[in-house]
């Protein structure tokens, strides 16, 4: 797998709408686009997903840069790689920093697929021709605004609506949503806003027929989640708590969750995501592909991963235009009736809009390999 250079580009893009979770509000997104190139003109792209502040996990845009520049690129330089699935083991000596690892590994997967003239979905062993997606709605200023947004996206055909919750914006809001949308697939994501002291309150959600509640308890917990799952009917889905296939194995064994949200960045790359997929397939655990408010490159990677069969539930990869005035890929990701067709061009299957990429770039560094 010849690689001649890795380019690190830092971009700043402004979200169309601020996105509010239980841990805070985001409006500008800083991230890296990693470009891995060979001498034959192939270029593979990866996107980093850490936010500017360590509120979701401990990684940030700055830690991503430090890891890539000072450790990960050296590892790529020092090793011959035959297949992108080897990158995961090469990166093992670096503890955690999964989002930094995934950005580099993703660029190499895309480069490899283009060298082989196959799609990234094929390189991963994906089989679906289309994928189903839902949308994640941040905490809104009023319940009325939330209901309006849900109406719009239900009409657009999104397959499920995820609603961010926190103490004070949970049961009453969801009850109102359920009343207005009795037949819509609804789920809630708490981003770790609760503790076991809230069991009685969380148990009330059982009457609302939610698809699942995502990450209700601490970001690093799988024990309390098992206690919670044993006393509520609503399926628990883990997001923040799962960083690897080993974490997934332990959570399944402890019955900490019935569903797992797989994010490529959070688990350290596509090879680890696939390992979690295979494990969950074996154990009959439903999974879906989460989102990190990605630009087009990250979105394209999510789409390719979701072609694997155990992604049985709609993911968070909504259309580009819901997040950005202008995305960095062509065509942009568009969603019709909640469905995205899988592109058939090699690699991620979308081309980079060089002009758009340049216009959002605030830093660029090229590393020869
Ligand atoms: O927990 O899934 C999450 C956004 C930012 C941080 C964490 C999360 C989210 C989302 C939005 O839910 C996913 C998306 O639309 O990309
Ligand atoms: Mg989540």
From TrEMBL:
Domain of life: Bacteria
Annotated protein name in UniProt: o-succinylbenzoate synthase
Domain Mandelate racemase/muconate lactonizing enzyme C-terminal positions: 143-235
Reactions catalysed, as given in the entry: (1R,6R)-6-hydroxy-2-succinyl-cyclohexa-2,4-diene-1-carboxylate = 2-succinylbenzoate + H2O
HAMAP family referenced in this protein's UniProt entry, alphabetically: MenC_2 (MF_01933)
Transmembrane segments: none
Record has Magnesium as a keyword: yes
Active-site residue list: 164, 263
Record-listed E.C. numbers: 4.2.1.113
Function: Converts 2-succinyl-6-hydroxy-2,4-cyclohexadiene-1-carboxylate (SHCHC) to 2-succinylbenzoate (OSB).
Reported cofactor(s): a divalent metal cation
Pathway recorded for this protein: Quinol/quinone metabolism; menaquinone biosynthesis; Quinol/quinone metabolism; 1,4-dihydroxy-2-naphthoate biosynthesis; 1,4-dihydroxy-2-naphthoate from chorismate: step 4/7
UniProt keyword annotations, A-Z: Lyase, Magnesium, Menaquinone biosynthesis, Metal-binding
């Amino acid at each position: 797998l010849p690689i001649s250079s890795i380019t690190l580009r830092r971009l700043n893009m402004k979200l169309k709408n601020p996105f509010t979770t239980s841990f805070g509000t985001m409006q500008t997104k800083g991230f890296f686009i990693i470009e891995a190139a060979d001498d034959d003109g192939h270029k593979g792209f990866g996107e980093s997903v850490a936010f500017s502040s360590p509120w979701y996990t401990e990684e940030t845009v700055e830690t991503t840069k430090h890891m890539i520049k000072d450790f990960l690129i050296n590892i790529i330089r020092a090793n011959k790689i035959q297949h992108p699935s080897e990158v995961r083991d090469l990166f093992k000596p670096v503890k955690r920093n999964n989002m930094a690892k995934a950005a580099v590994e993703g660029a190499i997967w895309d480069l490899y697929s283009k060298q082989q003239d196959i799609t990234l979905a094929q390189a991963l062993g994906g089989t679906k021709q289309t994928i189903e997606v839902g949308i994640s709605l941040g905490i809104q200023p009023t319940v009325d605004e939330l209901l309006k947004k849900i109406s719009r996206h239900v009409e657009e055909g999104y397959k499920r609506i995820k609603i961010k919750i926190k103490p004070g914006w949970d049961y009453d809001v969801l009850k109102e949503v359920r009343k207005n949308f009795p037949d819509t697939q609804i789920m809630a994501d708490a981003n770790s806003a609760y503790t076991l002291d809230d069991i009685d309150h969380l148990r009330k959600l059982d009457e609302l027929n939610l698809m699942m509640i995502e990450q209700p308890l601490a970001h690093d917990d799988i024990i309390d989640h098992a206690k919670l799952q044993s006393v509520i009917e609503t399926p628990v889905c883990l997001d923040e708590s799962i960083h690897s296939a080993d974490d997934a194995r332990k959570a399944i064994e402890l019955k900490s969750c019935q569903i797992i949200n797989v994010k490529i960045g959070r688990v350290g790359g596509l090879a680890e995501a696939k390992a979690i997929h295979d494990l969950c397939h074996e154990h009959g655990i439903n999974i879906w592909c989460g989102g990190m408010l990605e630009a087009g490159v990250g979105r394209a990677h999510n789409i390719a991963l979701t072609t694997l069969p155990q992604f049985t539930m709609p993911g968070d990869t909504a259309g580009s235009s819901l997040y950005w005035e202008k995305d960095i890929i062509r065509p942009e990701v568009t969603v019709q009736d909640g469905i995205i067709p899988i592109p058939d061009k090699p690699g991620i299957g979308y081309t980079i809009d060089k002009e758009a990429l340049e216009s959002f770039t605030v830093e660029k560094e090229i590393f020869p390999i």
